[in-house]
Amino acid sequence: MFRMKNSIRENNSILVLSEIINQPEISRAMISELTGLNKATVSEIVRRLIDDDYVIEIGPGKSTSSGGRRPIQLTVNKKAGVSISFEVRYDRISYLITSLDGEKLDYTIEESEMNKDNIVDFITEVVEEVKASIGDIPFGIIGVTISIHGIVHENKIEFTPYFDLDQIDLVSLLSERLDMPVYIENEANLSALAEAAFDNEHKSLVSFSAHTGIGAGIILDGKLHRGYKGRAGEVGHTVLYPNGTSCPCGNQGCLEQYCSTKAVVRKFQILKGDPSLTFDDLIDSYHQKDSSTLNMILQFAKDFGIGLMNVIGNYDPEVVYINSELLEEIPELISLLQHYLSMTIYKNVPLKQSILGKKASLYGATVMNLQEFLHVENVEFSLNMEKVLEV
Ligand SMILES: [Zn+2]
């Protein structure tokens, strides 16, 4: 789990450190109670853990019921470890390095095509560079989590419609090269974990991601809902038009064939008869109020609204976060979608633009690393948003 050096070579020290990792904060007396070690032993071990930077004191906790002196609380030193997150799309890979409190140390986007032949080398190289740059900090790299645009089940990629990563066992290949935990998870699921970590108000939420494909990440009562085979929230493959456009999933007329960013750009190219047109051209055309583009976007909004209502109807979230490049560029569409909802039984469900945007699944991957390392179900970030959002 964590590297053993200096103060934590013997079992009792590991026991004490595990208790501190397992709780947001804990007192020496509580550790003694939970481990069965006597108070003097716990105090001596804690002193060494503090000296070696694994643990810090965070001041007095709440008063005891008997009104006694408030004990000093201990917590893990959040600067003593590093989390690494990757997000892999068919046309680019990005990564985020943070300390254990989520503070950003590095964020990089590389515009290069990732496939089964180059991804293991790429990730290994980045991780080795990070390892060399952080030097000998107590916990080192606590984990590497990779966000995938596809269906992931039990750390295996089951289906990726737009690249070939489902042909390799990515976690096994990386685990052979890296001596640290490696996890993979669906992009929309991770985005939902990130929204939940920044949103202290809602316990049930949906993160609706529309990029190359479309997927929803679902948090119910504070827990990520994956489904039996990791397919919960695969809203992109719910059918909008029976007998419509064929989809790599095996169905016809799936939502993502009409509403993913990729599909909308393709539709714009067909509309204008020019296959070289880009996403930016589409946005320019919309802002120039080109009538055929406006009509196309209106149809997009109607289709998108149906997908949205299907998810809301299935999972009944308190709030929906929308993560889409297209809606980021045309934010008035959120009000239009909210208007569609207002005419239905879903009228009270607020739609929010994700402010994390492109970084959502990377922060979600950080949450996953922290959940696994700290053995906690929920992670809450209290970060300076300006720092989170700066590139
Ligand atoms: Zn499909």
From TrEMBL:
<comment type="function">
    <text>Transcriptional repressor of xylose-utilizing enzymes.</text>
</comment>
<dbReference type="Pfam" id="PF13412">
    <property type="entry name" value="HTH_24"/>
</dbReference>
<keyword id="KW-0418">Kinase</keyword>
<keyword id="KW-0119">Carbohydrate metabolism</keyword>
<dbReference type="InterPro" id="IPR043129">
    <property type="entry name" value="ATPase_NBD"/>
</dbReference>
<keyword id="KW-0808">Transferase</keyword>
<dbReference type="GO" id="GO:0042732">
    <property type="term" value="P:D-xylose metabolic process"/>
</dbReference>
<protein>
    <submittedName>
        <fullName>Putative NBD/HSP70 family sugar kinase</fullName>
    </submittedName>
</protein>
<keyword id="KW-0859">Xylose metabolism</keyword>
<dbReference type="InterPro" id="IPR036390">
    <property type="entry name" value="WH_DNA-bd_sf"/>
</dbReference>
<dbReference type="GO" id="GO:0016301">
    <property type="term" value="F:kinase activity"/>
</dbReference>
<comment type="similarity">
    <text>Belongs to the ROK (NagC/XylR) family.</text>
</comment>
<dbReference type="InterPro" id="IPR000600">
    <property type="entry name" value="ROK"/>
</dbReference>
<dbReference type="InterPro" id="IPR036388">
    <property type="entry name" value="WH-like_DNA-bd_sf"/>
</dbReference>
<dbReference type="Pfam" id="PF00480">
    <property type="entry name" value="ROK"/>
</dbReference>
